[in-house]
Structure formats: C-alpha cells, structure tokens
Write a structure and sequence with these properties.
Elements (H helix, E strand, L loop, with lengths): L3 H20 L17 H19 L15 H17 L5 H15 L5 H6 L2 H14 L7 H5 L5
Helix pairs in contact: 1-2, 3-4, 4-6
Length: 155
C-alpha cells in the first residue's frame, strides 16, 4: 500500500506541474523577451523545483513511517488562513497591494494567536510600507495601488 506521504507528494507533484504549465502562459512584454529575468522566470523556477522535489520524495524510499496524530492538528487555523488568502486574492486588485497585504498580515497574525498590538501593527502596516518602498524605489517595480494613488503617494 502507498503511504500517506507518497500521496501528499503526488498531489504536490500535480499542483507543481499545473503551476509550471500556468507559468508558461504568463504574458511577457516585448522589451522583456530577451531579458535574463522577467515576469515568468521565478514562477517557472518554482514549478520546476516543486516537480523535482516531489519526484524525489515519490521515488526515494521513506526512512521511517511518520507517526502523525491527526486529532492534534489545528485544522481551524488552516481553514481560517485559506479563507484569508482567498479574500486577499480577491481584494488585491481592487483595494491595492498596501492595504490588502497589510490587513492580510494583521488578520493572519491575529488568527495564529498574536495578540500584542505593537507586534500586530508593526509587522503589518509599516513592514508592508517598507517592503513596498524597496520594490518601487529600489527595484523599480511598478505596483498598481488605487489607495496610495488616491491619497497622492504614487502616481
């Protein structure tokens, strides 16, 4: 009989294969076609690494059978995080990167048990602002953000 780990890595193999297939459909601008790094480079890399790692775990023998207590796993927080990710994916285009990412981090940290207000605030809004500043000013990556455009911080 096939072990639970092999089934999980088989599912990971299928997901990585679909991700790699989808990465070949990412539109690339004409000026980026010959660039060494473009919008599809990293997704292709992630897909290939995922396929490689999962294939290794499928083919190689298991060292020992893992002893997992499924009753002790926290499926509630997992479900909450999955719902938060879906909400984040829905709002990132309309609300913008800054607000959607900040609120996603705030609610995710809270769902995972962080209750200190200073930690919740610092690792959401200022952290995202610094990260966005590095992306926009340092790496010259344009992020469409309707909220920041509305208040006049980006054009």
């Amino acid at each position: 009989m096939i072990s639970e780990n092999k089934i999980i890595f088989l599912i990971f193999f299928v997901i990585s294969s679909l991700y790699l297939y989808g990465s070949y459909n990412i539109p690339i601008h004409a000026f980026d076609l010959n660039a060494p790094f473009n919008a599809a480079t990293f997704p292709k890399f992630i897909g290939m690494v995922g396929i490689g790692i999962s294939a290794l775990f499928i083919v190689l023998p298991e060292a020992s059978k893992p002893n997992v207590n499924y009753k002790a796993l926290d499926f509630k927080n997992t479900a909450i995080l999955l719902i938060l990710m879906l909400v984040y994916a829905f709002f990132i285009q309309t609300v913008g990167f800054f607000l959607s990412t900040s609120f996603f981090l705030l609610f995710a940290f809270y769902a995972l048990g962080e209750r200190r207000k200073k930690v919740l605030f610092f690792f959401s809004f200022p952290f995202v602002a610094i990260f966005m500043l590095i992306l926009i000013k340092g790496l010259d990556i344009y992020l469409r953000d309707p909220f920041l455009k509305m208040i006049g911080l980006i054009s």
